[in-house]
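Q: I'm teaching a short session on how sequence maps to structure, and I want students to see two examples side by side rather than one. Could you give me a first protein with its sequence written out and its structure tokens following it? Keep the formatting plain so it prints cleanly on a handout.
A: Of course. Example one:
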Amino acid sequence: MPRRPARLAAACAAALALLTQHASTTAHAEQPAQPPVRWLPCDQVLKPAPPLDPDIADCAVRQVPRDHARPDGDTVGVVMLRHRATDPARRLGTLFVNPGGPGQSGLHFAYRAETFLTPEVLARYDVIGFDPRGVGQSAAVRCFTSQEEADAALAGKRETPLTPAETAATLRAERAYTDSCARTAGPLLPHLTTADVARDLDLLRRGVGAERLNFAGYSYGSQIGATYANLFPRNTGALVLDGNIDPLLRMTDGVEYDRQRAVAAEEVLTALLRDCAREGDRCAFGEGSPEAAFQELRDRLRKGPVTLPDGKVVDFAGLGDLVLGKLSAGDLPGLARSLQALSEAPASGAQGKAPAATTAYRGNDSGNAVNCGEKPYRLPAAAWPLLARQWERTSPTFGRPQAFDALPCATWPVRASDNPGVHTGPWDRPTGRTALVVGNRHDPVTPHSFAVSMAARLADARLLTADMYGHTAMGLNTCVDRLATRYLIDGTLPATGTVCPADAPPFR
């Protein structure tokens, strides 16, 4: 999530785009042969190895260049998991999947592919998930060597600081965090862009013997898919992008991208509270005035945390996390019950302390590494508190948390504007296959407007809208599942302007 564009960086980016375009169009002639991926039982590849059924899945590692501009240099091992087709006699090929993040592992995601892909798709495709470089089992980026070191550096930090004292402590802690990242994260840090992942994907595709990449990307995974399609248009097959980001906006203006996300999340929450009022007793929150009850709860948590009957302490930042989590999952009844429990909970006398530290560092720094290394933020750290106050006026629940979420990018050791590996376009290179772009009207994480933008920016895409709450639709909407299955099995696209209704009304 960083930085300032310079003329030299822009010129380098333009030159890189031209070189990339030439390399892509001549890919078949110039790329060296890739040895086939060697699939092994997952307990021989994953460390630590979770209990996985060998009849369902196997695993592999493919070495890729750490720096794709130096293909003969040091390498990184990218770990994959293959969920084998259940009807191999009718197998159509491979389908790579990514759950988003950035920073999320794709291994368990593929292993549990039945949660977002239909039995028909699972019968016909080997579904391959992977940990992108710098994530999980693929050389995970770590900014601290121990949890004790992290706790000491981050002492006083608040996820969403409210007072001047909390803000000052958070600014100090974030600077200590990014300084530690510069010292500890290692030489992979400048090479964690989405374009690096897309280039890795092309090597994985070739390693599994696929002529074209079939890909389903969810949330940030849609950025990976769009980037691949524009770096390797001749190698792109079926492309399903669900819960889309706006690729151009994300890669050119991180502040505006984040602001729009905060505004959209607030709009989804407002719509939810109004639906709650219309549903009456079916919604367990607010007693006839959910909007007023939520504002009262939000104002109360700004003054201090509350303690739930199970002992959990929830503060203002926790409220935003709770709402986003439940809305993303489409769990509207669960959200209403949780809000009601918070509104009835007594005030807490303390913020609560974290569990005792252990030697092993528990943090996940790969999301910051990707975001801060490629999203341009042109603000110094001192400007973040003002930005948070401005956003809070229009997005009182999500504006402040969304602003402070990007604070590490103000002092991140890799500046997006100085990183020649960042891909900012083009986004409209013809692939020969229409992409299927899916967006929910009430998505609190990636607004429907981003899906509209994604469909418009790609050379050839069909937008499928789901009239539902939730972040991503596949696996949560019967109509979307049916249409996505037809697209993946026989290439049939939904009619232009198709809108899938929710499977059930809110709170039912």
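Q: Perfect. Now a second example for contrast.
A: Example two:
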Amino acid sequence: MRYELMLPHQIRKAIAEHWPVVLPLGVLEYHGEHMGVGMDTLAVIKTLELIEPEMDLVILPPFYYGAASYAVAPPEGTGTVQVGGNVLAPFAEALFHSLLRVGFRNIHAIIHHQTENFAAGMPTDLAFKSAGRQAIFRFLERESGEGWWGDEKMAAYYAEHEAGRNPFNWIRIHSLMSSETMADYPFDHAGQGETSLMLALCPEAVDMAKLGDNTGWYTATAKDASAELGAKGVALILKRLRTLLAPAG
């Protein structure tokens, strides 16, 4: 369900049943002359739309304004929008803390931008990862006071941890494509892989007639893109999302 359309009784049901609450997280970035600047975020939104009929989940309004960086191209005339991680972190902490106060305990953000370095982290995902941790600490202190972890009633903390009941799993950040997915599908920037994904998921964001206007090396393989290849990537992504978004607890 789309969060902005939910009625309070539906929100309470989602809380009681531990539905996953998912934030499509991304950027607006130049992806060559043949593809829309929202590609990274659209890939997340459109795959979530495909999985939405299969399971109970809440899809939050997407956040497009991440740290795109100007690594690919300067913004003038290309459309790239850059918001630094130092600005994103306070926003993300406030957002996550608010969602915890609503009552959600199965919160996810999914990102596609710069995730070839996901284990080490890049500005957008690092900002949201850190913010998630800070929001959980802030919420726990708000609910139970300082010293919550040292309280005697937390003596079973590590046993609870082992059983999968870990409050620091209330908020998790994921890449849209895992390293295993990338091994089975071309991972690139505006090349064959991403162009194929958009042809399969959001063809209105692609104009193959503009391929000849591209000058970047990173778009050279886009000529080999196809909706069929994109469908393969979508299937791999959906298989992973079904596991990641399985109901908690």
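Q: What should students look for in example two?
A: Point them to this: The mean pLDDT is 93. Also worth mentioning: The helical segments are 8-16, 39-51, 85-102, 123-144, 157-162, 179-184, 192-201, 227-244.
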